[in-house]
Design brief:
mainly alpha; 5 helices
């Protein structure tokens, strides 16, 4: 039952994060849809870690290069997702209020993605690898 509560709370977090992103785009004051390019970063961010989890052998307790590369690529994607709205705001493509809403949505969405891997990342009987 704890897994279902975690899944529901993660779904709620994702919905709240997307709400902030949509508010930063669709409010009549802002009315620019350039921040929707961040959806690509949300999709791309877990992919390196998922690939490295499938490739590496977890029996070795030492860190290996594949896992470190995946963490490095994921970090680059996340930092790019936080930097893109700031670049848009500096170039006056979007307003600073929209930038604040999009950055708040970024924090919530990436927190939700991190929570997903913390809750379902262990190799127990309720794991995301079964899906």
């Amino acid at each position: 039952m704890a897994g279902i509560k975690a899944l529901i709370s993660l779904s709620f977090g994702g919905a709240i994060g997307l709400m902030f992103l949509m508010l930063g785009c669709a409010l009549p004051v802002y009315d620019k849809y350039w921040p929707l390019f961040l959806l690509f970063f949300y999709i791309l961010s877990p992919i390196p870690y998922c690939i490295s989890r499938r490739v590496i052998d977890d029996t070795d307790s030492a860190s290996n290069a594949c896992k470190e590369l995946a963490i490095f690529l994921t970090t680059g994607i996340v930092i790019s997702a936080f930097g893109l709205p700031v670049v848009f705001a500096r170039a006056e493509v979007i307003a600073w209020g929209a930038c604040a809403l999009v950055l708040t949505g970024n924090m919530v969405i990436f927190g939700t993605i991190l929570g997903f891997f913390l809750v379902f990342g262990s190799n127990d009987d309720f794991s995301w690898q079964q899906w």
